[in-house]
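Our consortium's second objective concerns turning raw sequence data into structural hypotheses that experimental partners can test. To show how far this objective has progressed, the report includes one record in full. It was chosen at random from the queue rather than selected for favorable results. The single chain below, 399 residues long, was entered without modification.
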Amino acid sequence: MKSRYSGQEKRWIVMSLASIPLIMTLGNSMLIPILPVMEKELDISKLQSSYIITAYSVVAIFLIPVAGFLSDRFGRKNVIVPALIITGLGGLLAGWAAHVMDNAFIVMVIGRILQGIGASGAFPIVLPLVGDIFKDDEEASTTLGIIETSNTVGKVLSPILGAALAALVWFIPFYSIPVFSAISLLMVLFLVKDKGGKEDQTRLKEYMTSAKDVLKEHGKWLLAVFAIGAILMFILFGFLFYLSSILEEKYDYEGIWKGMLLAIPLLALSIASFVSGRKIKDNLTVMKWVTFIGIILAGASVAVIPFMDHPVYLLSIFFVCGVGIGMSLPCLDALITESLEKSVRGVITSLYTAMRFIGVASGPPVIAVLMRGNVIWLASLLLLCALAAGILGYRNINP
């Protein structure tokens, strides 16, 4: 089928869609470097500060599948636009509370919950929209690699930007979220013409039946992909939370310097994600083995965390961990979007993204608790998670 979009129009569409994961990632990961500062300013514990990340993610877990259904029924863009508005309002509320309230923590968490509501209707909808627009499998794989790279570029920029803004006033990163959301909103409004899903006016009962049939037919490998996505995000955000805390509290790296150090391994993740998305093309077998190798790299890196107590050592092994996770993520995206029919692509990719948010939500608080004890327990848990992901990928993903 000949595309109704010219090459230039496609480039603008990709740029607009790529802005969404970039903004969503900045709105979350940008806050990780400032959590130690937040603990001091708000007089809260390390576990409480982790709730700033968790609150955003927990609400998204439950609402992402709903957003997937709505996007299939009413159109991808018709869900993405209000979601970006809600995201901006949530950031504005959290920043206002930190700015003017004496006991701001609870209201800030509410603002983060609003952000999570917005996030549930933004980034998850991008994945099926890519499949809607790009009919060629190889072109779709390349675009998904760009989308995932945008997500990881956000991770690279976020510690530097978060630390730089917080150096002015610690709560400025919250105020930046509505600004970024507005930029992405304008790009989507004016550059993305695809409505998606309008022809599929499926009722909820029929929709859920279709999703159930897909899970029944492909459940073995789909559930494996879901679990691997959650585990990789748990490892990434858990390790990132640990490294942010250790660099500031133990090694006295603060502000922009800490942000730049955190950005180095995240840059490795971004590059690996981009290269992986470009190389896998439409080969499902290659996707499986690249995912498996990436999991092995991530597991090997977290296993050696306790072996040496030095910031360069920790950054080096996080670098390897980032490469492994970056290799795997575009493959997981492509396995889903290129193996399923458009009619159920929205709900399945939404379920997958919800599972990833489970990892994002659980990583920081679990690591915050484990940091009270010996680092061996922390490393052992992350290693067990990686082993579980590797076994699931090896045994259950059979393209």
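The partners drew two points from this record. The radius of gyration is 20 Å. Residues 288 and 397 are 7 Å apart (CA to CA). Both points have been shared with the crystallography group to help prioritize constructs.
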